[in-house]
Amino acid sequence: MATALTVDWTGENVTIGEIERELARLRDESSVGMSQPNLRTSVMTHIAWVPPEWQHVAEETLAGMAERHPSRTLLLVPHPELEDGLDALVSVRCFPFGDRAICGEVVDLSLRGSRAAAPASIVLPLLISDLPVFCRWRGRPEWDSPAFQQLVGVTDRLVVDSTEWPDVPADYADLARLFDRVAVSDIAWDRTERWRGLLASLWPGIADVKSITVRGTRPQAHLLRGWLVSRLGHDVELKLDERERLEGIDLDDQPAPFPPGNPPNASDVLSAQLDRFTRNEVYEAAARAAAGV
Q: Does the pLDDT of residue 127 top 70, yes or no?
């Protein structure tokens, strides 16, 4: 991973106009000493809704993505319990590219008080025109909350991780209500990709399978069972041996072969989701089947 040059600015009780002016100033500052102006090569606006308990892990994941997805990232940290206001840490991060640098922007925003219930009013002026908008929602969404509904309304793709949800598979029914409004990605689903490829390679020998035993997380187990049900067209019994990661699968109590390759890290999984722009109808069918809807 290339070493980044970072210039930043911090402000308390700021306005959107101040944030926009500081972004422009920092982009100019990042070009000082370069023989050519730095390249502003954002390919998207990346919104991340990050409750305080998720902030550290979210920042680690974003750092691991580095220059793979140059973007304007809006990191929204809600603090509804505090006095109304908006605080910002604005950064421009540049990575060497010949005699220039490729630059992305990170705007870390603390939404205090009532600002946490109205994120769209903050996000809309900061979106980069004519580029797709991705929203990574950390934790379980409050499905009918103003904040969630507003961000779904301005987003082209919603990225979740149902491993972070306490009520699976019931939560998949709430998620399914969004499928006609916004494209949805689920990191828990993406982490089953190697195993789904392995099971698909066993076709047609698994056409009549009656049960699947999953040694993995609860969401992975329910999604794999939902995937089989939606593909095979008949019910499949789920037996769950809950683990922290997906470690094995049995079909009708017989162990399936172990798939090749290594599990991706969190940054690799999120990076893969940000390369997708259309609905994933196979995932949608698996989630609906998992929820029984």
A: yes
Q: Is 227 in contact with 286 (CB distance < 8 Å)?
A: yes
CB burial of residue 281 (10 Å; 0-12, 13-18, 19+): exposed
Beta strands in 37-140, from DSSP E residues, in sequence order: 39-40, 45-49, 72-79, 85-97, 100-112, 133-137
CB atoms within 10 A of CB 247: 13
pLDDT-derived band at 224, boundaries 50, 70, 90: very high
Neighbouring C-beta atoms of residue 108, cutoff 10 Å: 21
- In sequence order, the β-bridge partners of residue 40 are 103
Taking the C-alpha atoms of residue 275 and residue 120, their distance in angstroms, rounded to an integer, is 24
Query: Residue type for 163, please?
Result: T
Rounded to an integer, the average pLDDT of 141-162 is: 96
Distances 244 to 70, 184, 188, 197 between C-alpha atoms, Å: 31, 23, 12, 21
Q: Is 90 exceeded by the pLDDT of residue 199?
A: yes
As a three-state string, the secondary structure of 177-193 is: CCCCCCEEEEHHHHCCH
Distance CA 173, CA 66 (A): 34
234-278: pLDDT as tens digits = 999 999 999 999 999 999 999 999 988 777 777 777 777 777 778
Helical ranges in the chain per DSSP H: 16-30, 55-65, 119-123, 146-153, 170-176, 187-190, 193-201, 218-232, 266-273, 281-291
Sequence-separated (6 or more) residues with CB below 8 Å from residue 105: 23, 26, 27, 42, 71, 72, 73, 90, 91, 92, 93
**Claim: this prediction has a pTM higher than 0.85:** yes
